[in-house]
Amino acid sequence: MGSLVSCVATGLGFCFCSACSSLLGACCGNDKPSTVPPSVTSGRKRSVFLLVIALGLALAFQYGVAPWLVDNEDFTGFIAENWLEGCEQYDSVELRESCAGNQGVYRVSASAVVFFCLAAIVVVAKPTFNREVWPAKYVLFLFLCAATIFIPNEPLFSDVFLNVGRVGGAAFICLQQLIVIDMAYAWNDSWVAKADTAESEEMGSGRKWLGAILTSAFCMFAGAIGGIAVLFIHFTGCTSNDAFIIVTIIMMVLITAAQLSGEEGNLLSSAAVSLWAVFLCYTAVAKNPDESCNPQYGEQDKIGVVLSIIVMGISMCWTGWSYTAEDRLTQAKSNEEPLVRESSNSNGSSRKVSGVVTGYGTSPDEEDRHEEAIDEDDEANSPKHLSNSWKLNIMLACITCWMAMALTSWGEIIGDGTAANASVGRVGMWIVISSQWLVLALYLWTLVAPRLFPDRDFS
């Protein structure tokens, strides 16, 4: 019996150690044999993993380190003096903790933004940099975070990064709209293709996929309508909030009507855009400093923070694992070699074949030739379109700015039922609602532009 338990324990220990080493290798280095170079997506996934680390550090700084510094200000000396600079003006302990927590988020977020901006610059000169030396990159990022602890709040964090974060967060909201539309279109196309395949195999079997599309669209529309009802119940009573909610309803009706009246777009995309618009409207009205129409005034918007983190997680998954994201973020210019080519196999069927660029769908012979070429001279054979990976780093910098603004309510100092800087909440409100109007107008334009200019190609 003892030998049996020992054998089982040994096997489990071996599996556990192998899994841990594989996971560490996938996160910090190449997850393939040394003879196989890392794929393009390995850089994207590790960038997303670094952003996950940044989110964890930001939450730790905001809800762990900052309150501890406020409670032990007399014992932390120089660090507390820098971290709490500007926060001593608040009488309430809760307001000081809110201020210190915001400064902690700014420190981590600023480090991540600097890291991704530097990576964007370097990758233009060295296209393969985005997928190399990741252990050193993680160390550099952690060093930047540690260095910010000793930097005073003003003006670098309280003023400069706060405004940079607002601009970057607003840019991400617009970018997020493209992600939502892209995901909705890809989702719709995937299920339509499955419906066609099922229908070709058995008459009537494709209806379940079409029904799933309609059900998903109905659920998202129901969520959007339910969100509008919540906004009407809790956030009406002042001119600005009423106007925001009414404009959101009008735009939802317009984009749905435009989609149903033509062949452009699809119902699933319109439903996803409508649900996203309602979320942005909620984010805006929840920042209104007018107490008469904002029941959450002066309190931490925990629901908004959770929803924002979920949105951020979806964006990170799209950035790191979506094949359409690879085309958007790393594709070459139109005059360069296409990323994906169609090739016919021995059976005459068509399949997608990509070259050295991605490693997806490459035939065995081509893969061997490409691996040999890369082993001989990786720099000489690196595809030109990798130089466009700077787009990935800029997008991740914008996601970081969104993270900072979501965790800090766009820079508000709130607590004890009051907002110490109500004007900041008003600025955040207008930034979010303006971004919502912009993205709704852009989506509406994608639906009506092909009708207004039929001689142009909008594909």
TrEMBL record:
The chain crosses the membrane at residues 49-70, 105-124, 136-152, 209-231, 243-261, 267-285, 305-323, 394-415, 427-448. Residues 1-19 form the signal peptide. One of its GO terms (cellular component) is membrane. Residues 341-357 have a biased composition (Low complexity). Keywords: Membrane, Signal, Transmembrane, Transmembrane helix. Pfam families: Serinc (PF03348). Residues 364-380 have a biased composition (Acidic residues). Residues 334-384 are annotated as: Disordered. InterPro entries: TDE1/TMS. It is a multi-pass membrane protein. It is found in: Membrane. Belongs to the TDE1 family. This is Serine incorporator.
